[in-house]
Each structure stands twice: as C-alpha cells, then as structure tokens.
Amino acid sequence: MFTNPVVWVALLAGIAAGYVVRQVVAAKQADSVEQKIKNWTEDAESKSKEIILDAKERAAKLLEEVKGEEKTRKAQIDKLEDRVLKREEMLEKQSADVAARSASLEEEGKRVNAMRAESDALKAKVLTELERVASLSIEDAKKQILQKVSEEHRGSLASAMGKLENERREEIEKRSMDIITTAIQRYARSQVSDVTTSVFPLPSEDLKGKIIGREGRNIKALERATGVEIIMDESPEAVILSSYDPLRREVARMTLEKLIKDGRIQPAKIEERVTESQNELNRRMTEIGENAALEVGVVGLPKEIIQLVGRLHFRTSFGQNVLTHSIEMAHISGMIAAELGANVDIAKKGALLHDIGKAIDHEVQGTHVELGRKILQKYGVDELVIRAMESHHDDYPYSTPESYIVTAADILSAARPGARRGTVENYIKRLQDLEKIATSFDGVKNAYALSAGREIRVFVVPEKIDDFGALAMARNIANKIQTDMQYPGEIKVNVIREMRAVEVAR
User: Fold this and answer.
1) 127, 352, 471, 502: which has the highest count of C-beta atoms within 10 A?
2) pLDDT in tens, 164-212
3) pTM above 0.70, yes or no
4) Max Cα separation, the chain?
5) What CATH number is given to the structural domain containing 440?
C-alpha cells in the first residue's frame, strides 16, 4: 500500500516521536507523584515532632505537679508526725505526774488510816473508862437522856416537829411548782383542736360532676372504698370530706388528688388509687414517726414502733392530736427529769410511747394502756420504759420516779387551755360505737358511720349473706343500736350486698 520509502521513514519517525513524547509525559507524572509523597512525608514528620514535643511538655508539667503534691503531702505528714510526737511526750509527762500523785495519795491514805485506827482505839478506851466510872452502858445512857428530854420537852418537840414538817412540805411544794413552771415556760407549743371535716379544693367546678359520676356511681364507690362522706355543697371549687377518723380523711384526700391528676374518675380507678394511697400513707407514717423521735431526741426504737408513732398523727383524743400531745409530753418529761436527777432518756421514751396503744385500739380489744404494754413488750422495748408509761391512768402502781414524771407531764399537756374538747371526743366515741355494733355481726365486711352519726352503711360478704339475710341484718343492727346506745334523732342503717363476677381471660 505504501511503496514509497520516504513514507515509511516518515511513519517510523512519527511512531518514534510519539513513543518518546509518551515516555517524557510518564516521567513527568512519576516525578509529580514522588514529589507529593515526599511533601506528605515531610509534613507527617513535622507534625509527629510537634506532637512528641507537646507530649513531652505535658509530661514534664504533670511531673512537676506530682512532685509539688508529693512535697506538700510530705510536709503535712511531717507536721502530723511532729504533733503525734509532742502529744506522746505530753501523755508520758502526764502519766508520770499521775503516777507520782497516785503514790503520794497512797502514802497519805496509809497515814490517815493509821491516825484513824489510833483515834478509834483511844475513843474505845475512853468510852470503856466512862462506862466503868458511871456503871452505865452507852445505850442505857442514851435511853435515859432521851426519855428525860422527851418528858421535859414533849410539847416543844411536838411543836418543833410540826414546824419542820410544814416547812419541809412548803419547800417541796414550792420546788415542785418551780420545776413545773420552768418546764412549761421552756416548752410552749400552740394548740389546735382537730375537727372531723376537711375541705378539699378543686381546680375547676366542672370536676364536681366527674366526682359524682353517672347516677352517683363514682362518689358512691369513693365513699365505700374510703369510709368517708363526701359532701357537695355550694362552696365554689371545693368539696368537704367528713369522717371522725383522720386516717380515712387523709386516704380520701390523697385518692382525690391522684384521680384529678390522672383525669380518669371511675370505680375501677378509684379502687386502685385508694390502694395506692393507703400504701403511700404507710410510708408517710414511718417518716412522721422518725421525725417525731428525732425532734424529742429519742433513738433506738424498732421500726414497727416508729410506724405506730407516726400513726398517732392521725388520731385525736378529746380533739387533741395524740402525736402532738406525746411530743409535748416527751419534752416536758425530759426537762422535769433533768431537774429532779431522774433518767431523762427513760422519761422521754415513756412519754412519747405512753399512748402507743391508741394506734390500734380501734382494731383490737383492750384498753390503750394494756395494748401499749403488749406492743412494747413484743418488740423488746426496755422494761423501765414500759414501767414509766403504764401508770399514767393509774392502771398500774407507780414503780419508778419516771412513772410519776410521765403522769405529771400527761396532766400538764392535757390541761393546757384549748388543748382538749370533750364534746368532740364524745361525738367520735358515738361514731366508733356505731361501727363496732355493726361489725359485731357475722358476715359484715366493712361498716362506716356517716352524716354525723345519723347514717351507718354496712357492707356484707355476698357469699355469706343473701338478700333476705341483708334485710334481717339491717333490722337486727337497728334493734341493737336502740338497745345499747343513747343518741339524738334517728339513725339510718343501710346494709349493702354487692355481687361481683370476675373472670380472667388468658
């Protein structure tokens, strides 16, 4: 195709020139990559040197700090060693002084004993000589002298003895009044009589309808679960919780708070919230008991006793809060015991626990004093504490000074103006008697006195009491109330038999 040699030569020259150009370009590209690698290597080496230098500087700085701390600690240790050495030297010196003083006292004691023995021997010798001269023994001489003085000055002695007795009695009465007045003045606490109702504020007036529920089912479920009468009056954004038992009112109040916060008010939720409130209240009673013991400075009480002390916060006696009364008694007892030189700790514990039986007296038969003794004995409380608290109602004899102190403190605390109200206590006792009469019948699950004692609701176990039995029970309870109680007006007896069918789908 190409026969001309010139063409072949030109073609070969072009191929050779292209090869040469390609080799030159490839060489230049290789030189560029090597240069980049070289630059990267130099940068890496430079950065590594900087990092190494920075690390060395940090290590040197940390080493200096450690050396400084070590130096400071060593100085502190040296100071402590110096103080210990000085204290040891001082103790050795004091020990030597004590030993020298002890030896000196021992020598002095020996000398005194020798002088006493010599004096006793001389005295015996003189008495023997006197008896020999007088022909009369010492005892006979005493009897004759006393008889003679008694015959000559009988009237004067009687008058002197009466005067001494009157002065002593006046002195004792004055001293006791000073101690009591000082104790009362040192501990002054405000007295607020408890009432049987609580006002629960509502965030909105619309919540009254939710609390009542359709056909009153919510309010009935709430009253049944808590035993508290819920009164919906014309007070704006508020309901009244009425019950003689502060513990029930507190459970109802906490339940309403939880229901309003949840927003779902229905019978099933009400029962759940009541259970939660009761458990939460048990924990709260323990905290209240611990705070009360801490306030009066009483330690070492069992956890069960502490919880019962907290339970007293929700009990009243003649309108007076029982826990407040017990705390006040503990302070007063401690001050009186300190003035008389009695055991302050025993007096305080006896006063704080003197009404511990009231925490369960509505659940167990027996007086609160007897129940309190059994509780304290069960949990291993000191016998001296039990003896100090058992006499405050004269049920047991006064066997220790602390028992007198606790009784005096009980009288002082109860006698404060405005501390107690008998009408409230009588009212509460009437409601308690109503509930006790109802629960005495077989088959009764719960009984709640409502409407200031004008109504009692009795909830029976449906498996034990049928419909006809419920009618008969209402009549029997009403008859027993008429026979055993005195009350104004009428008392309505409601016996409620509710049947529930519950099954679990699995």
Assistant:
1) 352
2) 676 677 776 667 666 666 666 566 555 545 556 778 888 888 888 888 8
3) no
4) 190
5) 3.30.300.20
